[in-house]
Write a structure and sequence with these properties.
- By secondary structure, the chain is α+β, with helices and mostly antiparallel strands.
- The chain has four domains: 42 residues, no CATH class; 102 residues, conserved putative lor/sdh protein from methanococcus maripaludis s2 fold; 86 residues, Elongation Factor Tu (Ef-tu), domain 3 (Beta Barrel), CATH 2.40.30.170; 141 residues, RNA polymerase II/Efflux pump adaptor protein, barrel-sandwich hybrid domain (OB fold (Dihydrolipoamide Acetyltransferase, E2P), Beta Barrel), CATH 2.40.50.
- The protein is built from six helices and 23 strands.
- Strands 1, 3, 18, 19, 20, 21 and 22 form a seven-stranded antiparallel β-sheet that branches. It has a six-stranded antiparallel β-barrel with strand order 4-13-16-15-14-17. The chain has a four-stranded antiparallel β-sheet with strand order 5-12-10-7, with no helix packed on it.
- Helix 3 runs antiparallel to helix 4.
- The radius of gyration is 40 Å and the shape is elongated.
- The two termini are 57 Å apart.
């Protein structure tokens, strides 16, 4: 019984294999394949060979702001890669304040505007300064009298008409009055009032440095104290890079070395900087060192706090690259989107999986898994690829686009 059972099973499978072989022989070539064994993309049986597609209307493309780039050969130069921030040292920031309490009677500046050092920012009113100015004028007038009196006492003393003590007393009075006048002048000049001007009840707050007003901190009618900050001014001329180098890389760095860097939000804009100094103290938590670099190129568009990546040039290698913004990541896999064809109001994009290699200065090497576009063809989506990735994920549970 056991032998017959296995014999019957063997006969059943052999018969099935023969039938399938016979069906295959009845067809000269498989459906969707030519005599040479090449698959036709038009065939419905070849769907598995066609890359996933996403369709967008031309209105969507315009609203998204889709831009295109190309696969290009480029020299990737670097041995040491650094990251950090654009930093503003204390010398690049100033707080405008008042040396005297008072009420803000006028604001002459706006946040975000550039101001020159000494430019009027605020007008402050304080009635006490009227008394200061009045007292100054009275003391100046009295000083004129004391100078004449001193000359007279000197003459009388020389003629021995009056004792020397009277002359010495006149000298002392004049010196005291001069000190009082200088003190009042200094108080008025400290709040921006020239001693010989007409008496006024207001004084001006001037910009302590040239730069951009980052914050206006008071408004009209507000009462302020000498401790009240009125405005914060920053100067981009003092911006520099604060970078981090790890122990294995710091030995390749030295003072005055030139490096290239870019802001992560604008990888296409490459700027240069020069290493000013390297901190010899190590951060024990991650075995890293602080590196400070002076920005050489025009950096008026940079802002303190922006993240940057920097490279020290040492060697080069030509690789096929695209901008970092052209590569999307989903579940650990990397993709690019390639413009394929256009219909009346719709453009189709292929979603192609790629492997990434070396990256430098906002560009990344891509290696093919699926066939890639030709070198130089501007059909790869750059800005907006994240939107296409989101659109492609919407259809993961359903069937893909077909042609």
């Amino acid at each position: 019984m056991c032998i017959n059972k296995y014999s019957n099973n063997y006969l059943f499978f052999a018969t099935g294999a023969f039938v399938l072989s016979l069906l295959a022989c009845n067809s000269n070539t498989p459906q969707g394949m030519d005599d040479d064994g090449h698959v036709h993309p038009e065939s419905s049986n070849s769907q598995i060979m066609v890359a996933e597609e996403v369709g967008l209307t031309k209105v969507q493309i315009e609203n998204i702001g889709l831009t295109f780039t190309a696969l290009t050969p480029q020299n990737i130069k670097s041995t040491v890669k650094l990251s950090g921030r654009v930093e503003l040292p204390p010398s690049g920031k100033a707080i405008a304040g008042s040396n005297l309490e008072g009420k803000v009677s006028a604001v002459h500046a706006m946040a975000g505007r550039y101001v020159q050092k000494g430019q009027k920012l605020f007008t402050i009113q304080n009635l006490d300064i009227i008394d200061w100015q009045q007292e100054l004028k009275m003391k100046q007038s009295n000083l004129i009298y004391l100078e004449k009196e001193l000359a007279r006492q000197k003459e009388l003393s020389e003629e021995e008409i009056t004792p020397l003590k009277s002359y010495e007393s006149a000298v002392n009075d004049k010196l005291q009055q001069e000190a009082a006048v200088e003190a009042l002048k200094a108080k008025l000049e400290a709040i921006g009032i020239r001693p010989n001007e007409e008496i006024q009840s207001t004084f001006s707050i001037l910009a302590p440095m040239s730069g951009i007003i980052q914050h206006l901190l008071v408004s009209n009618g507000q009462f302020v104290l000498p401790s009240t900050p009125l405005a914060e001014i920053i100067s981009n001329h003092h911006l520099h890079l604060h970078l981090i180098a790890f122990g294995s890389d710091v030995i390749s760095l030295e003072k005055d070395q030139i490096l290239n860097f870019f802001v992560q939000s604008r990888p296409e804009q490459i700027l240069k900087a020069k290493i000013m100094w390297i901190n010899t103290l190590v951060h024990e938590q991650n075995n890293s060192y602080d590196v400070h670099a002076e920005i050489i190129d025009d950096h008026t568009n940079l802002s303190a706090g922006e993240f940057v990546e920097a490279r020290v040039i040492d060697q080069e290698q030509e690789l096929n690259v695209v901008p970092l913004t052209a590569v999307s990541i989903d579940k650990g896999l990397h993709y690019i989107f390639v413009k394929e064809d256009e219909h009346e109001n719709e453009v189709h994009f292929q979603k192609l999986q790629v492997q990434i290699g070396e990256s430098d200065l906002g560009f990344v090497e891509i290696k093919p898994i699926d066939p890639l576009p030709l070198i130089g063809d501007s059909v790869i989506v750059n800005q907006g690829s994240f939107f296409l990735l989101a659109e492609s994920k919407k259809g993961e549970e359903g069937a893909g686009h077909e042609h």
